[in-house]
Amino acid sequence: MNILIIGLGSIGIRHLINFHTLNPGANFFALRQIASEPIKTHPGFDQAIPNYQTITSLQEAKAINPSLVIIANPSALHAQTALFFYQETSAIILLEKPCATNMDQLALFDEIKNLDRILVVQQLRFHPLSALIKKIITSNVMGFLYRFNVTHSEHIALWHPWEDFRNSYAVQKSLGGGSFLTQNHGTDLMFYLLGAPDEYVTTLGDGSHLGIDCDEMFTSSLRYDQFDGDVLGTINGDYLGRPPVMAAEFEFDRGLVKLNFRTAQIEATVRKQKGYKNFMRSLPFERNTQYLEMSRAILEYCQSQASLKVDNRLVSLEEARTILRRGFSSVAKNFSF
Length: 337
Known about the structure:
The protein is of the alpha/beta class.
């Protein structure tokens, strides 16, 4: 099996390590701009970087006939890179989120007939708390859900402490940066849990807190028209939080559930006939596990040639495109992606 990785920043290296862990017999290739020496170490990872072969052109990449292409270059290049490998190879394509950074890029995907050949990274769906809260909602064990809040707040200087965040794609509009596009885990989580909202409005920051040319924070307000009444909620993201927070609260008829995705801790207050009862539990968790589980599901999909729903946590391009299109439409009309 030939696995090709486009872009060897931190996330590209994470994919290299994880897919090598799960399939050490595969042949790994990395498409890079210049034929530099292979990366052996990285400040973000304790282990040595697995061996790979460097290639420097799209034609070389096409010639290796990859079974799996992992696209981890800057966000603004995601759509056109995915389209090339869709048209020029028969590979399954794993595309880092977001799948596009504006409506014109989304339109490129209109040329794609088999949307299940392209999967989009959303590792939070593979977090144990995501499975737990989905079960709580669907089982109605806590009664009906009526409100939620999801927050992803982390100062961007903490992401890669070894480098100047001002050089990151995540703070440059021309490279597809911005909190709304980059920190979209909470948005994807709520579409995964509840589907598409009936109302969806987003307000973006102007970047002034960090002196950048794209949004450094956002707040989305959502309304779901459910059979047992409305569900209202907010999704917040920002590049400013110290200490970092990745958390969610869900208010039900019978109580409150709080999730800490960084520690995999769940806290619940359940209404009883007489008073309330509090529960707290920490699930076994290591941050990379959600990436590993996603990678395992992708390899199974590559090998099965079955329908996408081998694992319903995998995100097809069709689903990712729908979520992103709704996201673009939710932002104030005077803002243009």
